[in-house]
Design brief:
The protein is an alpha/beta fold. It folds into 3 domains: 3-129 and 256-317, 3-Layer(bba) Sandwich (FAD/NAD(P)-binding domain); 142-255, FAD/NAD(P)-binding domain, CATH 3.50.50.60; 336-449, Enolase-like, domain 1 (2-Layer Sandwich). The chain has helices at residues 3-14, 29-33, 36-53, 69-86, 90-95, 169-180, 200-212, 264-267, 302-317, 345-352, 368-372, 399-411, 431-447; strands at 20-23, 99-102, 105-109, 112-115, 118-121, 125-127, 131-133, 161-165, 184-189, 216-219, 225-229, 234-239, 242-246, 248-251, 255-257, 289-291, 330-332, 337-342, 357-363, 379-385, 388-396. The chain has a 5-stranded antiparallel sheet, sandwiched between helices. Strand 12 and strand 13 form a beta hairpin. The longest helix has 18 residues, at 36-53.
């Protein structure tokens, strides 16, 4: 009963379907307990501290706050508790007619599931077991008891120093947040780039921001050993002749689908490298078994898990209503945020050819709203192929709020010039979308200037 399971249960109950959900731990899943909610609560506290230190940018005296990370963690846990009581709790689902079963679940056939000692017959099964952090095969890492997204928010407070292995979205978000709370942060990345799925220029621009704030980011590091000294109080990551020491090590090196001990092999459900193999309807190799969310391993985000869950339920009971591909945007919630929809420039050129692709750029240095907010370090990039929008990348405050419009434009096959007809509010960061669209519209008008009637 994480992001996918809760959505599926609520939606299915509205169709008059008899629904039972099995949960072995806490309702709410990764998003509430180890992912989105606690990390964004941490980032909010970190931004408050950062704003206090840099209040001079707003004409207000700056101050260096004393940060008690124990109080920050208390706030995180309080927010989790509020959500668990208000929305993510068994009683709310029982009120919808959902039977909530506590315990480990296992398929005993394509249409029977055992939870604890009791077996339940069913027409359809939805696998929504999520994923867990992956620990890379580094000598001594397991002995060092590294932190992961599942462990860091169970602490009472932040460590005083931390070395992070991996520079994906989770590590980069937490690196900035922890640094702003006074933690000494080092990020080690095996490859040459951070945030490798993002538009490279925007990822580099964000990296420069983190480094300017004091986060040490080291690329090209292949960690080969971890050692522990001083009764576990000093942990060291080694890479050849180089090493980095800290109170804690954090691992953000990807995730692994939770497919073990579910009886999938016995039921005939095929599993691949990233998780359960499904078709466009999210149906597995067994007709009665569907899967959604991280256990499928397509896009591992809360919003995609919820979407896939609803899509799976529709395909179970309203056949043919949802098939084929679907576009999933995402956002890395740093400050500024980095949002992504569609393809990058390089991917667009590979798919459509150099001559068909154009990139439209708007630097926030030219945004009135960004200037008023002292937040002009950012950029908007829209990638078009033969005039149609195929990619959008936004480095800006609240970029996650902006990307929806551009996701819809990509999904609907719109031309950039089409967005010029959408009146945007001034002053907003989103006005940059209309300004870029206007550039495309003006170019088209310039090509058609011969149609302009001369005065008689």
């Amino acid at each position: 009963m994480g992001s996918a399971g809760m959505v599926a249960a609520e939606f299915a109950s509205t169709l008059g379907v008899k629904v039972a959900c099995a949960e072995r731990a806490r309702i709410g899943g990764d998003c509430l307990w180890t992912g989105c909610v606690p990390s964004k609560a941490l980032l909010a506290s970190a931004k408050a501290a950062h704003t206090m230190r840099h209040a001079g940018a707003y004409g207000v005296p700056a101050t260096d706050p004393h940060v008690d990370t124990g109080r920050v963690w208390d706030r995180i846990h309080a927010i989790q508790g509020e959500i668990a009581l208000a929305d993510d709790n068994a009683d709310r689902f029982r009120a919808l007619g959902v039977e909530v079963l506590a315990g480990d679940a296992r398929l005993t056939s394509p249409t029977t599931v055992r939870v604890g000692a009791q077996e339940h017959a069913t027409r359809f099964v939805l696998l929504a077991t999520g994923s867990r952090p992956t620990l890379p095969p580094i000598d001594g890492l397991a002995v060092a008891s590294p932190l992961t997204s599942e462990r860091i928010f169970a602490l009472a407070r932040a460590p005083r120093s931390i070395v992070m292995i991996g520079a994906g979205p989770v590590s980069i978000e937490l690196a900035q947040g922890l640094s702003r709370l006074g933690v000494d942060v080092t990020v080690l990345q095996r490859g040459a780039r951070v945030l490798v799925r993002e538009e490279p220029a925007l990822a580099e621009r964000l990296l420069a921001r983190l480094r300017a704030e004091g986060v040490e980011v080291v690329t090209g590091v292949r960690a080969d050993r971890v050692s522990v000294a001083g009764k576990g109080r000093v942990k060291t990551v080694h890479a050849g002749q180089r090493s980095w020491r800290a109170e804690e090590i954090f691992v953000g090196a990807g995730r692994t689908a939770n497919v073990e001990r579910l009886g999938l092999d016995e039921a005939g459900v095929q599993v691949g490298e990233r998780g359960v193999i499904v078709n466009g309807s999210l149906r597995s190799s067994v007709r009665s078994v569907y899967a959604a969310g991280d256990v499928v391993g397509r896009e591992r985000f809360t919003h995609s898990a919820g979407y896939e869950a609803a899509r799976a339920v529709r395909n179970m009971f309203l056949p043919g209503s949802n098939r084929g591909s679907y576009l999933v945007p995402w956002c890395t919630f740093t400050d500024p945020e980095l949002a992504h929809a569609g393809v990058t420039e390089s991917a667009a050129r590979a798919q459509h050819g150099d001559g068909a692709v154009r990139v439209w750029r708007h630097d926030l240095a030219h945004s009135d709203r960004a200037r008023t907010d002292s937040a002009s370090d950012g950029e908007l990039r829209i990638v078009t192929a033969k005039g149609r929008i195929v990619g959008a990348h936004v480095l800006a405050p609240n970029a996650g709020e902006l990307i929806g419009e551009l996701t819809l434009a990509i999904d609907c096959g719109l031309r950039l010039a089409d967005l010029a007809n959408v009146v945007h509010v001034y002053p907003t960061i989103a006005l940059a979308i209309q300004q870029l669209a206007a550039e495309a519209a003006y170019e088209r008008a310039h090509r058609l200037r011969w149609l302009v009637r001369s005065r008689a």
